Amino acid sequence: MNDLNFDSVVIGGGAAGMAAALELDAAGFSCAIVEREETLGGILTQCIHNGFGLIEFNEELSGPEFAEKIEERLAGTGIKSFTRTTVIEMDAGADIKTLYCYSGAYGVIRISARVVVLAMGCRERNRGNIRIPGDRPAGVYTAGLAQRLVNIEGFVPGKDIVIIGSGDIGLIMARRMSWVGCKVHAVVEILPYPSGLTRNIVQCLHDFGIPLYLSHLTTNIIGKDRVEGVEITPIENGAMQHEKAFTIPCDTVLLSVGLVPENELSKMAGVELNPMTNGPVVDSMLMTNVPGIFACGNVLHVHDLVDYVVEESRRAGAHAARWLKGQRAKAEARVKVGSNIRYSAPGRVDLYATNKLYMRTLIVKNDAVLEVKVNNRIVKTIKKNHIQPSEMIALELVPRDLETAIGAPEPVVELSIT
Amino acid sequence: MSEELICITCPLGCHLTVDRNADSSLSVSGNRCPRGVKYANEELLAPKRVVSATAALVGGSELHELGAVARLPVRSTAPYSKQDVPELLAAIYALRVAMPVHRGDVLIKDFKGSGVDVIATRTLLAAT
After folding, report:
1. Which of A124, A264, A315, A417 has its CA 20 to 30 A from that of A179?
2. Nearest CA to CA, how far is A66 from chain B (Å)?
3. Residue contact A50–B50, C-beta within 8 A
4. CA distance B125 to A49
């Protein structure tokens, strides 16, 4: 077995992992990236559509371009990338963390480091996760798998498509499948509103005349060897209208029903997870409950833009470097999620620093107000023209906002939206 | 006759109502800001879209095994006339690109005099 030692190791070589590694390297710490795919870049390499990079690069790029431009920053640094290398096991010792990895090139490797940054991203929810009844024929894919097959491997998974779920990946795939010559017959969404961005509804569905069935549930997938159709049942006032059910013939079903952070390794190391995000609970330094293990990007919570992933991951890398130098937050307050907010990441703020928080709301509203309370006193209100669950809300809290929490026995920062 | 449109310039998503005037100009209502008028004019008079797709790689058939990179991602350098997107796609699908190819390499120059190029969006040096 090969034994390797680094100051820090980053699990996952997507945008998050690369951004965090660059900060650790810049602070003078040795750093390794472990990536199970052939190349760095993560999910971006299959996201060939436009819309990435407006914040990070001030231009509109496709996913592969964004990934390459970040990867180019690794050149000339001391960062060591292990591609085709999968972390099998993580041991969180009190001082040293140990990763056991299988590598195509080197066999079994043991990597020891004082800091681990979790940047593994997400996995797609699949048919089993949402329990769609019916037959078990071939032709049922998650949207991201179909995206990889079409955009990288050059396989088109079917001809007549129905997409279940109106997440952005599904919408993007509706356009992509139409542009490769398939017929997309419908997008079916259980909720009364689409979960993807309006821009994608317009440019990926309306442009192609693809119907969007809101408040409709997929009640059956039909087909013996191959998918032959899906049965769709309308929901009215919370009740399924079985007599109004109808079947759409198709040979392929794509599922775009959400993402789940990939935290098997985190659990193995004793990292506490937040049930609202399925990602780790982190403090103001983006550190988990296990000292020396940090988290960033989609493994922490699902982001809408890779530009935000990079911003957050850069912070995680910089905090990890500070932690290696022995710096700690002097005093923290717990972030309490109040009305109409689903979660906030991180879950703690540093009273003496500028804190950046990302949160998601539970409601769709125009002219909303985001309210920040410190120990039940309002310290900040921010007007929001428009909020919806699919759009992340960013908030900055500076020491001035938090000064009343200093010295309080159990300081609490409460966020709510009205 | 009025036409309905959702403005996608920002997340507010204003529902626009657009009427065509006798002089073929547009009257827009339902917008909360001037960008809605601009969007309605572009979208109804000369809609355009950025096109992203993939092109075949030379040797692509040999690469046709599970997990291998068999397609090169490409995109238009600017939005292209929406109604003519199919002919731009046909031109992209007719390409056979040899490796090595670098991000930003121009694969189609000034398509049909539109000023729009098609470029590679990924660097592929050799078959993986």
Report:
1. A124
2. 9
3. yes
4. 22
- The verdict on A38 touching B (C-beta cutoff 8 Å) is yes
The pTM (predicted TM-score) of the whole model is 0.94
Chain B residue numbers with beta carbons less than 8 Å from the beta carbon of A199 are: 8
* pLDDT 10s digits, B51-87: 999 999 987 555 556 667 889 999 999 999 999 999 9
- Counting every residue written for chain A, the total comes to 418
Between B66 and A300, where is the model more confident? A300
Other CB atoms within a 10 A radius of the CB of residue A236 amount to 9
Distance CA A57, CA A315 (A): 18
Interface contact flag, A62 B75, Cβ < 8 Å: yes
Per residue in A30-42, pLDDT tens? 999 999 999 999 9
Looking at the domain that runs over A126-257, which CATH code has it been given? 3.50.50.60
Quick one: average pLDDT of A383-387?
89
Domain range annotation of chain B: 2-45, 49-120
Q: Which two tokens stand for residue A48?
A: 């060939």
Place of tokens 């198709």: A250
Query: Cβ of B49 and A199 within 8 Å?
Result: no
Worst-scoring range by mean pLDDT, A136-145, A268-277, A383-392, A405-414?
A: A383-392
Checking if the pLDDT of B30 tops 70, the result is: yes
* CA A380/CA A387 separation, integer angstroms: 18
Helix (H) or strand (E) holding A85: strand A85-92
Q: Is domain B49-120 annotated with CATH 3.90.79.10?
A: no
ipTM: 0.91
% chain A with pLDDT above 70? 100
Q: Residues of A with CB below 8 A from B85's CB?
A: 179
Question: Using the 8-state DSSP alphabet, how is residue B98 labeled?
Answer: P
- Rounded-to-integer distance, Cα B96 and Cα B107, Å: 10
B64: closest chain A residue by CA = A153
CB contact under 8 A, A153 and B67: yes
Interface of A with B in 136-195 (CB under 8 A): 150-154, 179-180
For chain A, domain boundaries: 1-124+258-328, 126-257, 331-418
Q: Which of residues 45-64 of B touch A (CB under 8 A)?
A: 49-54, 56, 60, 63-64
Residue B128 has pLDDT above 70, yes or no: no
Cβ contact A61:A50 at 8 Å: yes
Q: Is B58 helix (H, G, I), strand (E, B) or coil?
A: coil
Given a contact cutoff of 8 angstroms between Cβ atoms, the answer to whether A251 and A158 are in contact is: yes
CATH number of the A331-418 domain: 2.60.40
Secondary structure class of A334 (helix, strand, coil): strand
The per-residue pLDDT for A262 is: 95
- The predicted pLDDT at position B41 comes to 93
Condensed to tens digits (0 to 9), the pLDDT of residues A357-375 reads 999 999 988 899 999 999 9
CATH code for A1-124+258-328?
A: 3.50.50.60
